[in-house]
Design a protein that fits this description.
11 strands, mainly beta, four-stranded antiparallel β-sheet
């Protein structure tokens, strides 16, 4: 069983920064990617960023490209999302996920990010 524990959310003013962390524990064997989705009130969950073990390639949604950076510490089984130049429409619950080769996706519990104007 895999568990994902997120941390780092909070309240920040527009233009500020936050760093989210997602630590994976348990049976992470077979995992090949981790990333972040977010869901704002009344909106669908959307992909924010992802990082793949193979070649350490990354993906960013166009709305965050150039402002957010995803990285991984493989020794700690932890993925980070550095968020800079935050604006109010980045306000959402951010969910970490982990993908495995058995076609399963594990989700974290979510962490609230609120950006005030």
């Amino acid at each position: 069983q895999v568990q994902l524990v997120e941390s780092g959310g909070g309240l920040v003013q527009a233009g500020g920064s936050l760093r989210l962390s997602c630590a994976a524990s348990g049976r992470t064997f077979g995992s090949y990617a981790m990333g972040w989705f977010r869901q704002a009130p009344g909106k669908e969950r959307e992909i924010v960023a992802a990082i793949y073990w193979s070649g350490s390639s990354t993906y960013y949604a166009s709305s965050v490209k150039g402002r957010f950076t995803i990285s991984r510490d493989s020794a700690k089984n932890t993925v980070y999302l550095q968020m800079n130049s935050l604006n109010p429409w980045d306000t959402a619950v951010y969910y970490c996920y982990l993908d495995r080769t058995d076609n399963t996706r594990i989700w974290g519990q979510g962490t609230q990010v609120t950006v005030s104007s």
